[in-house]
Amino acid sequence: MSRLEFSGKLARDAGRLAHTAFGQSATSMKGRHDVLTAMDGEVERFIRKAITASYPDDAIIGEEEGGRGADRVWLIDPIDGTANYARGIPHYCVSIGYLEHGVPTVAAVHDPSHDWLYSAARGEGAWRDGQRLSVSPCDDLGAATVECGWSTRRSTADYLALLTRVMNAGCAIRRVGSGALGLVDVAAGRSEAYCELHINAWDCAAGILLVREAGGYTNDFFAGKGLTEGNPVIGTNRALCAKLADLIGIPIEN
To answer: Engineered SS bond to 107: which of 114, 204, 206, 251, CB 3.0-4.6 Å?
Structure first.
């Protein structure tokens, strides 16, 4: 079984496990607006156990238990969109990304509410359950939809300034509470861009590869300390990438 096949099966199994306690898992708070459920830990342990059994020499970094980088490293977000999940809002996912030498190489994102599996491998395209994904062809800012994720690591003023720039350019704005699914929506052509002024690697590693393999563009997220400390992120379609990167203020990687 290839890493792509392995990660897809694992993400689906983990998503189905998470969904057994959808809207019902015990919750606590890690920080301001940072919800933690009991199922976050259970799902991460489930994923770690499977990776360790199949790829014992690979490193793992997860949202709940941390980890260290290596030449081969898996990045796990057991439940991305935990606040939605805890409240019974059907917009959350399991995200599994795999990097080799700092390059996103395999991605799997499972959306349990729809039982949709998104997957990608470097140079092989992006897919949803066998259907090829492609970014939106929209080339008009006035017709574009941009999702602007929010992080407590950046000030309210910075976020409001971002929203102002995007709205003044004529774009529609959305924020739905999952960075991984925000990038998936770009890859699937449902929106023209996802951006966030700070995001952690486990939230976006899989989504970055999905956008790239669907014909879109992202920033060089893993530059500097992106793997361990996070960075800004942008994923856009091809037609608007230059305009949106300039508008949002995050340079695109060509």
So the answer is: 206
